[in-house]
Design a protein that fits this description.
The protein has 333 residues and is of the alpha+beta class. The chain contains ten helices and twelve strands. A hairpin with a 4-residue loop joins strand 5 and strand 6.
């Protein structure tokens, strides 16, 4: 009798956790940000574990059905599983970016450099021969050093509040956001195409996981709201100072928010997540030794189609490097 009651208790607990998890990640209320800051697959694993243990006590088909529900939820809702749709796509490889179906590509890289506390990532970047590089947590002299390693004296770069953009081409102008860690530049390709670059380093995430404390939930609530404000402010400046979203634009950097976070919904309507669309391999970027979160992104408007993307480990940062290849569509509408 005790085994049976315990088994049914675990089944009910698993179903309640499933309903709460799906609802919370779908609606993403700020007051529950402390729950959704954790990886989606973590809650799926916990719910699946409850249903599996329930089967041990009950030996009933219902617990197996609940396990199946959790498995399907994991496949549909987990960012790590969405890349399965890209099976068969080719990843970018080191060296000069190869054309895609006969079309030239633009290679873009993004990396949080951790102020070079783990060493100089220049050679790691140089292996990929990027055309445009977005850097976060980097100092002015470090930017010049990386630019020289990548492009010699021909490179062009801009720097603002520990963010930088480096390119083998020319930067026409720059717009700085003096309130937050983000910057805009216009890169001019050899064909004369202008590409807007918005390089972001959003507010660092709250890390207090003492979820039994009310103040921990408030910190996560306030932290997420501030990050949403930062991104909204950056996008508003982009609209006011360019033809965005009606021109080629790349938005990237360190979002300090996983792909399941509501902050990304501000971009989904007009920009494509390069890794979700064309990524291969394990896309999580933080921390570098055992990456459990994808918080570094490259987005692009319809003028640029991502055709290859991957995250690459570098020992010279606590983040992984994101590499993406794009083909251009100057007039996509």
């Amino acid at each position: 009798m005790l085994r049976s009651r315990l088994g049914w208790f675990l089944v009910v607990a698993s179903l309640l956790l499933h309903a709460f998890t799906v609802l919370t990640y779908s609606v993403q209320p700020d007051r529950l940000a402390a729950f959704t800051v954790l990886p989606f697959w973590l809650w799926c694993g916990m719910g699946l574990g409850l249903s599996v243990v329930a089967y041990y006590f009950l030996k009933a088909s219902l617990s197996l059905i609940v396990s199946g529900i959790w498995a399907i939820t994991l496949l549909i809702g987990s960012d790590e599983c969405k890349v399965l749709a890209n099976i068969g796509k080719q990843p970018p490889i080191t060296g000069q970016a190869e054309p895609y179906r006969g079309k030239p590509v633009i290679r873009v890289a993004s990396l949080n450099c951790a102020l070079l506390g783990k060493g100089d990532p220049s050679l790691d970047l140089a292996r990929w021969q990027p055309d445009i590089v977005l850097l976060q947590e980097v100092l002015p002299d470090q930017v010049q050093q990386i630019s020289t390693t990548l492009f010699g004296k021909q490179g062009d770069f801009r720097y603002h509040q520990t963010n930088a953009v480096i390119t083998r081409w020319k930067i026409r102008h720059e717009i700085r956001n003096h309130t937050y860690r983000n910057m805009q530049v216009s890169v001019i390709t050899p064909t004369g195409m202008e590409i807007k670059i918005l390089n972001l380093h959003l507010l660092s995430a709250a890390t207090d996981l003492q979820l039994w404390r009310r103040d921990a939930w408030k910190r996560h609530h306030d932290n997420r709201r501030q990050r949403k404000i930062e991104l909204s402010n950056a996008l508003q400046m982009l609209e006011e100072t360019s033809r965005f979203p009606n021109q080629a634009t790349i938005i990237g950097g360190d979002f300090n928010a996983p792909a399941t976070d509501v902050v990304h919904r501000q971009l989904k309507e007009f920009a494509t997540d390069a890794f979700q669309a064309s990524g291969t391999g394990w896309g999580n970027t933080f921390p570098w030794r055992f990456p459990i979160l994808r918080i570094d992104f490259l987005y692009a408007t319809n003028h640029l189609t991502p055709v290859r993307c991957r995250a690459v480990t570098t020992r010279h940062s606590d983040h992984r490097l994101v590499i993406a290849d794009f083909i251009t569509h100057p007039n996509p509408y």
